[in-house]
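Our platform keeps sequence and structure together, in a single record for each protein. Such a record has a labelled line for the sequence and another for the backbone structure tokens. Nothing more is needed to write down the fold, since each code stands for a local backbone conformation. For reference, a complete record is included directly beneath this paragraph:
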Amino acid sequence: MNRSRAGRFAAAAALLAALFVAPAAAHAEPSPPGPFTCPLPLVPSTTHPGYTVADPRCELTGAPFVPLTDAAGAPISTVYTGIDDGAAYRIEKPLNWNGELVLYAHGYRGQGTTVYVDNPGALRAHYIARGFAWAASSYQTNGYDVGQGVRDSQALISKFATVTGAAAKSVYMTGASMGGHITAVTIEKYRNTFVGAMPYCGSIGDTALYDYFLDANVTAAALTDNPITFPAEDPPAEWEAAFRESVKQRLPLLGTNLGTGIPTFTPLGLKWGEAVERRSGGDRPGFDGAWAYWNARPSLTPNSDVPFLFGLYPGLSGGTAGIASGNVTDNSHTLYQLDNKWWLSREEFQLNREVLRVRATASASRDLSGIPVVRGDPRIPVLSLHTIGDLFVPLSMEQIYAREMAWHGQSRLLVSRAIRAVGHCEFTPQELQAGFDDLVSWVRTKNRPAGDDILDARKVARPDFGCRFTVGVRSTFVAPACPAA
């Protein structure tokens, strides 16, 4: 780590200190008009014992789910809700329907046993205003169950025709985060069903996401000379507690306030950042601030007592997030680097010699079990968006998908857009709406829209990378400002 880079990390952390805020019925019929009291009782699942389903007529806020209205308060859509086969669904059809349907797949919701459906965020009103109907499912399960999400999302197409009385003439597929993985799998499994797709912040590198979590943990362990094992040893609870204690022992070697506040990195912590940058998408603007941002955050429950990336260690669950047997992670041939030079320095030789090597015992599944494979063979237009500072589902997932599509000779069917933000799925409404509009235009006119060349390392490393399609400036994205338009 050179001194100027260390200074940029320090400057990014100092700026973030002023900005950081710690961490958001078996038949279908239109939702009833008039007074409506929410929340409604949870419904026991008919397909997964122990699960309950939140009534889709009720928002999580307690308000009823109702049609959108115009400026005068008149409804401009009709909404339908229901619970079938252990999954809740919502459908909204505009009064001026154009005959087209958008399926929305939600992201990962932890390991809880209550499933619920929600709306497609900032795109809901945009869909309706443009004449598109939309449909979304809660899925029958939580966890990283992509296969169930695929089945329940695909089932919405026939459900839409049944409850509205009209079949869609064309269908688009969209999804965020894990929903991006669901999107990429669905459009490949159900050929000739969709005309276009828009995954965003998606884990579209399938099992490579778990390789990234592995990389972050084994490099930190090697750099701090703190041994790490894989997978969890019996009994798991004791091993997990010991793992978290070992993480806490190495933290002082990496920096202060990691996972509890604004971090200050040691030289080893900065070096660890270099290794993670290479594995998360390469040298790119804003990484220094993103590194500080993500290391300020605690990990997900039940590992909220360690910094974010440590709680994602695949060894804690055997390598598949508990969704299937076997380990899908593998770094047996991974070359870890601390800079952009193609040859290995002495430090890099040592890191690669000492890092824990893990071999996969399973792979991405060819069906909908386990972690379904994403082949990169959609055969329809795909427009995808990714924030370049996301260190939960990093830009490298987008790059892996682009390489897979290139291998299948379909590069012209993919448009990737880089957004200058550090948060996971941190998009403005304008960015998402522009992406969807450009996808629709592409499908209708066959004219491919513009995107970013995410596979050209020199372009990714440029100070203005991501400027073209970013709308607005995020205070937490610390990088030179974009050139004036």
Q: What stands out?
A: The two ends are 34 Å apart (CA to CA). The CA atoms of residues 219 and 355 lie 6 Å apart. The longest strand covers residues 77-84.
